[in-house]
Design goal:
Shape: elongated
Largest sheet: 3 strands, antiparallel
Distance between the termini: 27 Å
CATH architecture: Orthogonal Bundle
Structural class: alpha+beta
Strand order of the largest sheet: 1-3-2
Number of strands: 3
Oligomer: single chain
Helix content: 55-70%
Radius of gyration: 14 Å
């Protein structure tokens, strides 16, 4: 039986992959860092929805943010842990 911490980690991972929008954001960020406006444009979703998903991904340690030269511009990228987990998920998901 998994420990409480392991169950919590599994639950957080399941939450990340339970929504197509979060998964699409992670895949977009797999290639390189993007500003929030680029992610929004790519997914054709409202800024508030994208921000909500980004907050969830930051909170769970999948992505990180940094401010651009213009303080209004925010850039997102995968954390090392997030990149490893996403690559593993995509590899396992592609097997038959």
């Amino acid at each position: 039986m998994p420990t409480a911490r392991e169950l919590s980690n599994l639950s957080q991972t399941a939450k990340v992959f339970s929504g197509k929008t979060r998964l699409k954001i992670l895949i977009i960020l797999l290639a390189r860092e993007h500003c929030v406006c680029e992610i929004q444009e790519c997914l054709n979703k409202e800024q508030s929805l994208i921000s909500h998903h980004l907050s969830d991904l930051i909170e769970t340690g999948w992505i990180k943010q940094r401010k651009g030269k213009d303080a209004r511009q925010i850039f997102c990228s995968l954390t090392n842990k997030g990149k490893r987990k996403l690559e593993m998920f995509l590899k396992l998901g592609g097997e038959k």
